[in-house]
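REVIEWER CHECKLIST
Item 1: Sequence provided? yes
Item 2: Single chain? yes
Item 3: Sequence as submitted:
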Amino acid sequence: MLSLHHDKNSLIPHNKNSNLPLLIHFPWQTVSLLHHKPRYESSEAKCTYLTSTARCDPQGYMNYLYFFYCVCGNYPALGYILLLMWLILLFYLLGNTAAHYFCSNLEGITRLLKLSPTIAGVTLLALGNGAPDIFSSIVSFMDPDTNVVGLNSILGAAFFVSCVVVGTISICVGRREIIIDKLSFIRDLGFLLFVLLVLLMIIIIGNINVFCALAFTSLYLVYVLVVSIGHFFWKEDEKKGLIDVCPPSCSAKAFSFQATEHGDLETSLLNSMAEMDESIEGRRADEPNSIKSYFKITSSTSSCFHKILYLLDLPLYLPRRLTIPDVSGQKWSKPYAVASAAFAPVLLTVIWNSKRKEKTTEERMVIYLFGGLIGMAFGTVALWKTKKDRPPTQFLCPWLAGGFLMSVVWVCIIAEELVSLLVSIGVVLEISPSLLGLSVPAWGNSLGDLVANVFVALQDEPGGAQVAISGSYGGPIFNILVGLGLSLLLSSWAAYPCPLVIPKDPTLFQTVGFLVGGLLWALLMLPCRGMKLDRVFGCGLLTIYLFFMSLRFAESLGLLQLQ
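Item 4: Structure as written out by the authors:
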């Protein structure tokens, strides 16, 4: 995240007029000498260090180190509180944007392409389910100083979901003696083990070229093929609701598959974040399509608490709603559609100019003018071609493509800011990026899986626990192969013809080792217990995860040294 601008003839950046220490970046640990020099204990000295010694450019749009040490220097408690609140808000925005905009457009594309539910489940809708993890990983790999965070966040999320989520589900449904399908369980868990072994080989080798990265990512196509073959040959079992053939996205976090009496699969886009915001989003869909409708709240339908929620959510909702085209039936609004068509190009030009700081004022104005003219043209066409009472039925592809593009832009913006904040928090708290990636982003992006999958498992509908367990193993497969795979592919492409060097982090071997241990526990225990989800199985998984995290925190605090 932090890049130091220095003389290219010098290995360590420096300031000729000062002997102050500098931020030094190691492959697996970010160390700030500020924390180890007694003369820089005061906030004023640390602020002087940041502003006068080295130019620390944040990867995101805000300089959090400057904010903490300079703005909140004399009130560190206030700084911690504000950074924590902003972190929670960014996690909410990341999940909410993926749920209500990214997934919505993916669902429309799926219907437009007339994909079967099975293929849609392991491709486009799986992408919607893993969007926060995927984009966070891609953004973190854009900077060599933050790729450790991305690598550990993907593995940490896989560990959390396969142990904590599966363990919690098993404990919650333990008394019901639910039996899950053995073939689909072995298929998902076995492929996840294979993927982890391939990833372990890459980590041991220490580098990867663009062709190997492409082959690693392409393994997901093999998984899609296996799932499709299973769907073809296990049709009769699927009709009985015994086998779930769409594991990667079968959690309620993105959508669910339910077997009908005719043996077809009905695909419905759900989301745990959407359920949390159901009252807000539902009212947006039902009320008149204007900003004023936000404030038409009667005492019989809403409380003062809901009014506060509307007011707090409005500044978070409007910027995205006014720039992301949305042609879903429930949320259709012609004023918003026209506005999004007009403002989307403007937002793209703003982002383009913010990333091109070397451009002159005249060049920036030309870009703004160009974006504004395109926006006016798109807005005029949208005003002329759309109807007030229903979304367009013709030329639907440009609307869906535009909505998909802008939702990706917003998710990338939020993910970039989230990674920037996480690394800054790591510097402030002196936490290694590897431990930071294993904990905060992994937990934040996986809480939706925990709530949604447990909710699905506790339902009385047949196959609910099967759907939840399959999603808990299929989701990490997608996130590792596609999320981490795309990150490696893009980074190795940028480094071509040289191979991409994988960060030398010894803790990665611990993470993969314990993750494989948790999967082997599941692979051995469930068949031995007749494929029944019970508390013994669930408590074992939770124990493995808690022991691993305790070990990592003990290492971070200096209480234990294993490396």
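Item 5: Key structural point noted by reviewer: The first strand starts at residue 3 and ends at 4.
Item 6: Recommendation: ____
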